[in-house]
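Researcher: Here's a chain I'd like modeled. Treat it as a single chain, no partners, no ligands.
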Amino acid sequence: LTTATFMPWAMSGDGEPLQVVRTGDEDNDYAFELVEENLESILGKVPQGMKVAVVSVVGAFRTGKSFLLTFLLRYLKHGDALDAESTGWMHADGQFVREGNSNVGSAAAEEPTLRGFAWRGGQERQTTGIWMWSEPFIRRVPSHPEDVAVLIMDTQGMFDNETTMSLTACIFGLSTLVSSYQIYNVDKRIQEDHLQHLALFSEYGRIGLVSDDAEGKDAGGDSKDERAAAQPAAEKPFQRLDFLVRDWQNFEDDAAPYAELHREMNTYLQEVIRPRGHSDLAYTREQIGRCFGKISCFLLPHPGPHVTKKNFDGDIEKIEPAFRSLLNRLARRVFDDLIEPKRLNGRFITAPEMLQFVKAYVSMFREGAQFPQAVTMLEATATANNESAKQLASLAYQQALDAVAGPASGFMRPEDLEKEHERALDAAFAKFDEVANMGPPGLIAEKREKLKGHLAAAWERYRETNSNRNPFKNAEVYVVAVAVGVISFLLSSILDAMCSEGTTCDQTADKLKFVYLTLIAVGVYVYWRYLQQLFNYMKEIAPAMFASAGIKLKESSAPRRRERDGIRTREPEDGT
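Model: Modeled as a single isolated chain. Structure tokens:
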């Protein structure tokens, strides 16, 4: 039994594919464009702090990538991880695969609510750019102790008549950089050119593994190449590469038990990647091994002649039983056994961090006709990583100070608040130093200085807010006013008792009455304004107070202002 679980959906129409990267054409030099609102919409649905895993499928055009993803989506919605033999999830949305079916006359036209990655029979290109499913799938996976948000990504087919080799390399590269589980969809067998395309990233992998040493030597004198070869799998720049060979024709018996078929798959992979005598063949395999932490292979037989027809209606019963059986095994293998969260620089990342990395990578690939230099890719990764470090550190500081001086807190002695600030500051910089460990030291130091500025600004805000909560702030003004009022009242009362009407003494008493009555009026006005301010303040912090009590308000009267900038220590004001 596996520990994976799935989150069922209320209906198969939930979610839709959203384009997250557009690719240009010859007129704009095949530039990449990030569809930021779509990506933010997808990642915004991931619970705060949850790690993300990205399963991507790349490969030549018209090799069934989107058709495969349609079934993988069905498994994520309906798959039962406890019964490895069951293929019932394939029929959970009916006997016909209508999701994404673009074939002429297909049943999908009758069910427009059933959305999926678009696929069809024939030879015309279907998918352009890079797409993601709009809904994350929350799962528990064996490789991680907590729930993980699984994202599904489809890519433009490569090696067609309209896509240049440079653009093909960029699409493959961007997918590899973003994904934690890269499925390389190939037709009939793994050929030498498939391996060469993978080797495009070997230089990035080599530099990324030893980025802290521009001279190629460490203290012990080992070269970059020697150290890169010695790196453990977890430190390699890319996580898992899974060759998915479609239309495989060489099983001895495709109806044999899965354990036997699995052995054939492993034997085939070992034969493909075994060391070769010829130098360029050996170098290609060596570089791939350096870049990918884990390499695996899965073989799928042909789905049958009906599936490739332009009028295929999606009838699952028309798909060959051997294909369905192994497709079931593939889905369980990917999502129940092998998947893990996206890891960068040895650390699993969350959705906000993923957004930063994707932005950096797409920006790097803006000139789609030009494949980026390895150093450019490393700088983009380092920049995104260090920006994530700054944001995580700022968030850690904010959460620590909010706990003692947030919107729902009362006045705190300045010296006690400063101690909490110092503790939060140390924790924030410790978090930054833990995460910001990529790229040249100068860039890290520059980002650290920016973090100091953010924390300095935040500290001033927390300090000023706490000072304003001091119940004795400006007390001397009120004490003097009250004293003058009391003295005026007493003197007026004494003079009223002693003086005759119309005398100078009586006039003095009247003036003293005017003084204390004026002070009383001013006091009432000030007190009324204070009550108004208090009322507005309570409306402002009410959402935070109810949220901390586990109560959700439908609508708050005033927006809750949260400060996310930080600050540096300053000598505290004198306070009571």
